[in-house]
Amino acid sequence: MSSVLTSRNVADVLGGITNGVIYSLVALSLVLVWRSTRILNFAQGAMAMIAAYIGFAVLAPSTNYWVSMAVAIIAGLALGGLTERVIVRGLYGKPEINPVVAMVGFLLVLESVAAAIWSTTSRGLPTPFSIVDWQINHKPVALSPFALYEIVTAVVVMTVIALLFQFTKLGLKLRAAALAPEVSRLLGVRVGRMLTLGWMLSSGVGAVTAVLVASNYFTGLTPTTMDGVFAFGFIAAAIGGLDSPVGALVSGVSLGIILQFVGDYLNSNDIILVALGMLIVSLMVRPNGVFTRSAQRRV
Amino acid sequence: MGARWNQRVVAGTAVGVAAVLASWLGVGTARAATALSIAAVVLVVGLVLVSSSEFRRDHPVIARAAISLVAVDVSLVVTGFFSSTVDSNLAIGAAMSIVLLGLSFLTGSSGQISIGNGAFMGVGAFTVAIWANHHAATPIAVVLILAVVAGALVGLLLGLPATRLRGPYLAGMTLAFAVAFGAVLNLFSTWTGGDSGLQLPSAVNAPAWLVHFFRSGTSSLTTNSVWLVDVTIVTAGIALFFMANLFASRTGRAMRLVRDNDVAAELVGISLPRARVIAFVVSAAYAALGGGLWTLINNAVTPATYGFALSITILSLVVIGGIGTIPGALIGGLIYAFAASVIAWFTAHTGLNPQGNVASQLNGIIFGGLLVLTILFAPTGIAGFVRRRWASWRSR
After folding, report:
1. Distance separating alpha carbons of residues B27 and A1, to the nearest angstrom
2. Do B187 and A273 lie within an 8 Å CB cutoff?
3. d(CA B232, CA B247)
4. How many Å separate Cα B7 from the centre of its chain?
5. Closest CB from A109, A231, A242 relative to B368
């Protein structure tokens, strides 16, 4: 039994899940915004990175991890709301390339501003739990307390979002505003506020993701920490379907596991190539994602 | 062809003769004077032709050729008066404007978007470098055509899945390509030279007749490497001519209908996938041509140049210049040529530490900020803004 747990394949699966939940979180963050405002937020990673910097670079290094995390989340929520009010508001109803361009520009601004303030030097974030793998019979299992914390956090975030959307009145309003804005407005839902709230939630999820990424990965926190993660998260979201939160979760974790095997059995250079290939094939077969039921588009 | 036409011809001939006389009297060597005279005659004839609206209507292709020729003519003469630093900046910008023409066509005509054109540039850049390392004797024109072909092929490869995608999905896919491009290069590292890239085997030498003809008399420009400025400008002129025709052609009109109303386009018999693939391939081929020229100008190529950041820069230049317009692409190229100098000047005059964090990030902050502001407040960019002002000024 113990030899199975420490085997190469199990290690790949565990490592894959640890990476995959991160992709799932990024994908979820993208889906939240896409569903409510039909905008693909290319600045998602950069906004999350800013939130992480605010939590961990503005405060003194000695600040308690959980306080910093809370500050990062609050910063993320605020940044998301601010972005929707200031930039995104002017993009509704415009040709669909306008939001893409605007968000790419915003990405550039955020990364440059972060580098101007905090420099491009990487900074390591504190970890609340050990990053050393557990051992069975003196052999490492590919799972550390920190990795477990990462997975648990992701599950908690996803559960909170799911509960909010499915079982609260606010969630109902959020879904109504996204699916039928005109009708919801007639029924007294403040649609504008709901869209802002959707962006806040998305950006809050992003903040948690960025903090996890920056303390787990070798890169630490840099202005471009989230670039690669964003690319994988987008690939997961596009494969799963930008309309489907469940698709985001499933394809994120699957992508993580598959890429872990690719990195282990082929080499690390091939990871992004395989991901790109999967994206292309998946988009050719199902352009609206694997988990999206209807492929209808408004004419 | 009425009285106004005759007036123009007379006025043009007079100016042309004056210019030829002036260049013979004012310039030292006979060769330089010949060059300047030819330039002046081309300029005058071109302008006379183009200034007539009847001519533009009756012979649109010749008129476009004349405009391209005048643009090349003026640029070539003007580069003779600048320092070699300014000239090589201009060449870099001219190559960039070729790339921008391609993206402008893709986005402005067919309504698709690509955040991966930096990688397509890289395809062209590496094609030129790899070919030159194996067949050093190949003429530059052939190498550049190879770069265009390579870019078109890669564009086709990515364009086929792109036919079924709309806006944001396509943008995301091209973004993933831009991010993965470095890994693609690594995959063929025996050819591409891995992280350090490739050097061209020897500086590309100018044919002797060209050096003698154009550059005698302007001492700073007789060095062999700077003649590439002229090659770039001429290439950009040819690219401009083709693109102007493409914009106005049946294909170009079909693309604009695809952009504005794809359902209507299908109803009138336009094949959507075909239109989208063509637009994508054209934009990739133009990007590759620009990248190939960069390799020639820089005499080397590194993978780091063709990263994700370049793709974003390309997108911002197109949008700021004016999406879907030819002048917009040229404005974008000019901006790119001088952005670094302007920012350096700004840094020097505001007392910012040039090695500091803020100074090194000014480029991104300004371009990103302009990109957001442009799309929010003037989505048609500089070209669209000027055109609107011009129209309202004329109608007054």
Report:
1. 91
2. yes
3. 22
4. 35
5. A109
CATH (domain of B116): 1.10.3470
What range defines the domain where residue A223 resides? Answer: 2-285
Q: Do B360 and A297 touch (CB under 8 A)?
A: no
Higher-confidence residue of B34 and B152: namely: B152
Span B49-62, pLDDT tens digits: 787 788 888 888 88
**Total domains present in chain A:** 1
B202 is a domain residue: yes
d(CA B319, CA B368) in angstroms, rounded, equals: 11
What is the extent of the structural domain holding B274? Answer: 86-339
A185 in any annotated domain: yes
List, for chain A, all residue ranges whose pLDDT scores fall below the cut of 70: 1-2, 217-218, 293-299
Is B371–A102 a contact, with Cβ atoms under 8 angstroms apart? yes
Say yes or no to pLDDT of B269 above 60. Answer: yes
The total number of structural domains in chain B stands at: 1
Q: Is residue B391 part of a domain?
A: no
- CATH number of the structural domain spanning residue A262: 1.10.3470
Q: Is residue A129 part of a domain?
A: yes
In this predicted complex, what is the ipTM?
Answer: 0.86
Q: Which of A108-117, B187-196, B324-333 has the lowest mean pLDDT?
A: B187-196
Residue of B nearest to A280 (CA): B161
Q: Which position has the higher pLDDT, B228 or B127?
A: B127
CB nearest A235 (choices: B176, B183, B363): B176
Q: Evaluate whether residue B358 is within a structural domain.
A: no
Mean pLDDT of chain A, nearest integer: 87
In a domain, B318, yes or no: yes
8 Å CB contact of A119 and B358: no
Closest approach of chain B CAs to the CA of A2, in angstroms?
37
Question: A142: burial class by Cβ within 10 Å (0-12, 13-18, 19+)?
Answer: buried
